[in-house]
Amino acid sequence: MRFLTIRRLATLLIAPLTLWFVPAPAALAQEGTRTPVQIVALDECDPTTFNLNIGADFCKNVALGSATTFDALFAEAKAKNPDPAWDFEPDKVTIKKGTPLIVVDQGGEPHTFTEVAKFGGGFIGDLNGGQATVPECAGGFKNLAVARTRILQGSQLQVTGLSEGEHLFECCIHPWMRVTVDVVE
Ligand SMILES: [Cu+2]
Quick check: 168 and 113 in contact, CB under 8 A? Predict the structure, then answer.
């Protein structure tokens, strides 16, 4: 009898508290319940030549006849005709403020998704096609700010909290991989 009374009392006390702390639906929408927008990073690195030059297991691409060799990638970049298979898709997105971006590396090698003030060169001079390294990519992965924007093959990076306006992102390794994000209210 006494036990029941306490339980009923507890229910009476706790139920209103629970209701009190449930956020309003409008507040939830502001705090990251928007459906994320996906961007994919693509490349067609040739595992044999990339791993010979850089190290075992660097390129994990499942190349189905469309791979680009290590030397060809550098030659194309030098000729200012960078390989279009190294690409972020889509190139331009418009999102509502509060929408997370999820960048998925579906290619075979690492990339970065680094916000820059102006598009330009990355941290590997021979891939820059003559463009100067942008300050945001300087130092490569020794620069923690660059390292934390790295996306390994098969993994993803989430970008949140972008302010209203235009944001530019590029890969600091393959700087022709570029995305413009427009954030609107
Ligand atoms: Cu890249």
Answer: no
Give the domain CATH number at 146: 2.60.40.420
Distance 119 CA to ligand 1 centre (A): 14
> Does the bond joining 36 to the residue before it have cis omega, within 30 degrees of 0?
no
Number of domains in the chain: 1
Q: How far is the CA of 182 from the centre of ligand 1 (A)?
A: 21
Nearest-10 Cα torsion for 170, 165, 154, 149:
60
pLDDT tens digits, 87-132? 999 999 999 999 999 999 999 999 999 999 999 999 999 999 999 9
CB under 5 Å of ion ligand 1: residues: 111, 171, 173-174, 177
- Domain that residue 32 falls in: 2-184
> What pTM does this model have?
0.82
HSE-CB at 105 with a 13 A cutoff on CA atoms is 20
